[in-house]
Amino acid sequence: MNRKVIPSLLALGVSLSLCLTPALAQDEVKIGFIVKKPEQAWFINEQDAATKLGQEKGFKVVRLSGEDGQQVLSAIDNLNSQGAQGFVICPPDVRLGPAIANRAKQYGMKVVTVDDQFLDADGKPMADVPHLGMSGYKIGRQVGEAIAAEMQRRGWDPQQVAALRISNNELPTAKARTDGATDALLDAGFVEQNIFDAPQQNTDTSSAFAAASPVFSKNGRFEHWVIYALNEESVLGGVRASEQYGLSPDQVIGVGINGSGAAFAEFSRQKPTGFYGTVAVSSTMHGRQSADNLYTWITQDKKPPANTETTGTLMTRDNWQQVREDLGL
Ligand code: FCA
Question: Which of 101, 107, 124, 271 makes a 20 to 30 Å CA pair with 73?
């Protein structure tokens, strides 16, 4: 070959690869994973699971906090400036749905929700945003059934037991969960008037503790208490309040939902507490599946199912390590 051709071919190769590099970089998939409570084990695990899936499949996951509306909107701006094509979100307030979906649309980003589903301006679920979350009512029933079974095992008279229902009725999944638990308890002979609401401002331990404390002081006539809420973090707040009030573990049956680090830490204590169990759901699966749904939507233009509902397994001090392993937690 003519010697002069070689350098020019080389030059062509270099310039071709120069043109290709930015194009390849543009093809790289990057998604955000925005959560309302970045310090809670449930959400840390979801983000970890999504990140791991990204490493396996070759896409990047940007982990972000969205503890209020302002933070969520700046997280979306930030994702846009990084060239992300979409995000998974568990919003801090489900009524922010339309504002979040709008911002995403302006940037041409795809959005899926995990755990807490967006509501539209009329308070109805935004069915056009694909969602993956717990089957709240069914899981709530499991909570109520677990409590009723443990009450029976302890020989408590259902007529004499009080319930601390730590409620968060603004959040539909929370209401579905506590409604499910209430219905199962009533089916087991619980007295409706003995159920006391402790409305919490948030979905964490400290807001539950604050809501629970006055309920115990006002209802000192009861010797036996059951405690339930939308998640185990909140039930733990109720259990801590029961301890502070002076109730002992054998007077309290608290059953949570999630099966995350908060429950593992409680089960690992040397002595049992009033936190009897929790209905564990795989946060690993929630994180992986929601990220995978979004990734497939971005890369293959296949919109994920409108609503995926996940199920749970009762976890107690006796079986928690096994359940943890079975659920990949
Ligand atoms: C809500 C709760 C979380 C978790 C999740 C699945 O977001 O706040 O603790 O239960 O649903």
Answer: 124
Cα R_g (the chain), whole angstroms:
24
Give the residue whose CA is nearest to atom 1 of ligand 1: 115
231: CA distance to ligand 1 center in Å? 6
User: What's the 234 CA to ligand 1 centre distance in angstroms?
Assistant: 10
The pLDDT tens digits for 21-57 are 444 455 799 999 999 999 999 999 999 999 999 999 9
Cβ-count burial of 36 within 10 angstroms (0-12 exposed, 13-18 middle, 19+ buried)? Answer: buried
d(CA 113, CA 88): 6
Q: Which two tokens stand for residue 116?
A: 């807490």
> Are 39 and 55 spatial neighbours (Cβ–Cβ below 8 Å)?
no
The pTM of the whole model exceeds 0.85: yes
Task: Read off the tokens for 188.
Answer: 């087991």
Encode pLDDT of 256-281 as tens digits. Answer: 999 999 999 999 999 999 999 999 99
The conformation of residue 64, written as its DSSP 8-state character, comes to E
32: part of which helix (H) or strand (E)? strand 30-35
- Does ligand 1 have an atom closer than 6 angstroms to the CB of 203? yes
**Is 148 in contact with 186 (CB distance < 8 Å)?**
no
**Residue 46's closest CA among 282, 313, 297?**
282
Q: Whose CA is nearest to atom 11 of ligand 1?
A: 115
> Which candidate, 52, 114, 48, 46, places its Cα nearest to that of 309?
114
